[in-house]
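Case study 2.
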Amino acid sequence: MSNTLCYLYLANLQNSGWWIGARRMQGEFKWQSVTGGWGTMTYTNWYNGQPDNYQGKEDCVQIVKNESPPFGWNDNECGVKLPFLCEATENYRGF
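Prediction:
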């Protein structure tokens, strides 16, 4: 899904944040893949000033719906309960 399409979809939801399957591991952010492994992040979309690892507790990455810019990434505590966005394989047909 392209960023634009993903953002248009999220703009119509009531939530203000979603987990995106990335976390800090040994000082570096990594993506979790559909195969269960972790890969290097080659793309980021952090809000200005992020990631800030507030109080040394923010190791997971969420996409946040805000006013301007409308979407960006924030690091947050992994235990915060939020809905999530998942990567899907090409032949995924939904739940």
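Residues 3-11 form the longest helix (9 residues).
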